[in-house]
Amino acid sequence: MFRQDDSDDDGDSSELDRSHYTPIPTQPPYAPSEGEGTLDSPVSDRPPSVVWYPDSSASQKRRSWRRYWRPLARKRYWSSLVHLLMVNFPFALAAWVYLFVFTLTGTTLLMALPLGALLCFIDLLGARAFSRAELFLQSRFHGPLPYPLPDPPQPIFTRLRAPMPADAESGADSEVFGSRPRSGHVYERSFYKNTYAMFTDPTSYRALFYFLVIKPAITLLFGISLLVAVPVGFALVVPAPAVLRTARRLGVWQAGVAVEGLCLSV
């Protein structure tokens, strides 16, 4: 029988080379007892049964080293590292500055109702747009995500609703903004209803909390840690695969936090 290695963290199993195995007898060579013939005995002509066993620990070490260095040739590890080092911080900074400025000025000027309401409208609209972009980036660089994304995606402003009899007469089921509605739903064309739905939708305020509180802390912590660990790990060469594995795990974890904070109900 053959013993195969367990699959590694990528889900790939390494095939064993039969040349690394040496047959050994399962029983000692047949030794005739006294009174039995040694040359013409039919029993002594039987070949002993054999099993295959690993020749030495050298092959196991080689396979272990191949599994250890495997992240260097895998795109998913590099994509996670690129996102956490080069994309995540500029995106988080842009989202934080935009939402902080409009949240502060909008809530401060609410006493001047038209101007404050307009700034709050722009604030929530930007929060929902950043939320859509964040989910796209997380699924692009860290997929598959721990949680499924909503389908259809959450609307930025124009929402979907169930069709009404009046829609067939007015042709509201036609194309809107260059796309077709899904699942028999139609796009809401009323600006007032879309605005009211955006202000009363809890996902708008979850996006504000995520981009103003949660994402800055995660981005700073992971970004600074990787800025220190990545140059050292790749300069020493040997720790490089471990650094890539760590970046992949951190990326998948923070992607799960993003989906929880932006899509899932608490």
From TrEMBL:
The chain crosses the membrane at residues 77-102, 108-130, 208-238. Signal peptide: none annotated. This is Sensor domain-containing protein. Residues 1-46 are annotated as: Disordered. Residues 1-14 have a biased composition (Acidic residues). Keywords: Membrane, Transmembrane, Transmembrane helix. The keyword Protein biosynthesis does not apply.
